[in-house]
Amino acid sequence: MSAPKRVKVCFVKDCFSNSDATPDKIFITVPLRPNLRRIWFEAARQPYASRSSKYCCEDHFDVTEDIENYMRYKLVGGKVLLKNNVVPHLFKHQLFTGKHIVSPFVTQNNFRCTSSVTPCVVLWSLLVVVL
């Protein structure tokens, strides 16, 4: 008998995605390298956790643009490879602006910002006004 499969839960606050409820959703492992891991936590506005296994669901990425091997992954499976400098950047539950919110941390630190969302500079100024 095989061991039960571990349920992956998205580490982003107020995102309730998990691999049990949505088995077809992509869950990307949060990097373990401390500097990169800290960047992911800051982008998601989460308190830093140094060691535990964390996952981020596909809802926080533009998967067709952010995943290097997206078409191959969809066709034959395998490991998901993110493009360089991609961090979670879509957070529709944190601040509504019509489609998605782009984390101000991402835009202020030259990380990837997709063109399918409201321009990052506008979102940054909106967030400053709201806070």
From TrEMBL:
Keyword ATP-binding found: no
A Pfam family found in this protein is THAP
- SMART domains for this protein: THAP
User: What transmembrane ranges does the database entry give?
Assistant: none
Q: Which UniProt keywords apply?
A: DNA-binding, Metal-binding, Zinc, Zinc-finger
**Domain THAP-type, first and last residues per copy:** 3-91
Q: Which residues form a coiled coil?
A: none
Quote one Gene Ontology molecular function term. Answer: DNA binding
Which InterPro entries does the record cross-reference, listed alphabetically?
THAP_Znf
SUPFAM superfamilies assigned: Glucocorticoid receptor-like (DNA-binding domain) (SSF57716)
Alphabetized PROSITE patterns for the sequence: ZF_THAP (PS50950)
Its protein name is Uncharacterized protein LOC115885750
Q: Which organism is it from?
A: Sitophilus oryzae (Rice weevil)
What taxonomic lineage is listed for the species of origin?
Eukaryota, Metazoa, Ecdysozoa, Arthropoda, Hexapoda
